[in-house]
Automatic annotation (TrEMBL):
Gene Ontology CC entries for this record: cytoplasm
Keyword line: Oxidoreductase, Thiamine biosynthesis
This protein's name: Glycine oxidase ThiO
Recorded superkingdom: Bacteria
Keyword flag Cytoplasm: no
Every FAD dependent oxidoreductase domain range: 5-336
Pathway annotation: Cofactor biosynthesis; thiamine diphosphate biosynthesis
Amino acid sequence: MPEHFLIIGAGAVGLTSAQALLQAGYRVTLVERGTSGQEASWAGGGIMSPLCSWDYPEAVTRLTERSMGLFPDAMDELHAATGIDPEYEPSGMLVLPPFEDQRAATWCSAHQVEMQRVALSAHLPGLSGEGLLLPRVGQVRNPRLLQALRRHVELLGGTILENHEVHKFNIENNRITRLQTSRGNLSADAVILAAGAWSRTLLGEHAMTLDVRPIRGQILLFKFDAPPFQNILLQGSLYFIPRRDGHVLVGSTLEDAGFDKSTTDEAKSSLLSRIYALFPHWREQPLVKHWAGLRPGSPDNIPTIGRHPVLSNLYANCGHFRYGVTMSLACAELLVNEIEARPQPLSCEEYRWL
């Protein structure tokens, strides 16, 4: 049984994996190419649900539903342990038309997920028609969550090595013996790959069937004196996330642009036109910020979790696409269970590294 783990990547998935392993009694060192929690985990919106769960395969929703159930207590515990409030908010998500009413109702009924048909005018004055309210959907404020996770890992005795870019894996007898990094060699009993969009590139020929690639997403940020609405709003692929302090995140794009994190005027214009079509008065609202992040794209949004088929001391926890933060607690749970050969709380066949 390994005693010391090196985790490559200190985003939400790497940090929650480290937290779970430290709480189970292991030694953990996180190896981060840049600064902890500053890539896709920081750039995302923090919605604790797929945008519409009925549009995703069961392999995705069983992970997100598991994680959604863990988040409320976990966020309370994280806040108490670190003094940093991740701002978990059970804000609910209001789906605006057009939507597939019957498909949504069938999925929610089968999965015992509460769904309410509501008059939009009761939630958004000026809009008419009917929407679907999913009251259980929550949100976190990603930067604060990442600060709290980092602090908790440090309090639990974990080590975080920033600006350590991994260049090469030294392999002997189908085991990783050392990581060659930009600041020297590192070794441990086992390695966990949680490097987001960079995961496949890092492994090179050892990636085998791991299919993870960068997918750029761009988000706009607005600021109001007070939150203009309570619920997360979703219309098609466009979402609005209201924060407690009046900030509203609006996103996002899906772009196959390689490792280019730059923002574009085209994406900004496209998002603004959709925003103004729904809320014309937002034309008078100043845009505060515009940023982009690189999601770890994977087929059907299904992550890879578990041991490498050849390298016996390498594990993966990567390829979560849009839902790394959302899935993070459940994926960390599955990873530790895999390492310790314990029964899993759900079927894991689709997540294996084949």
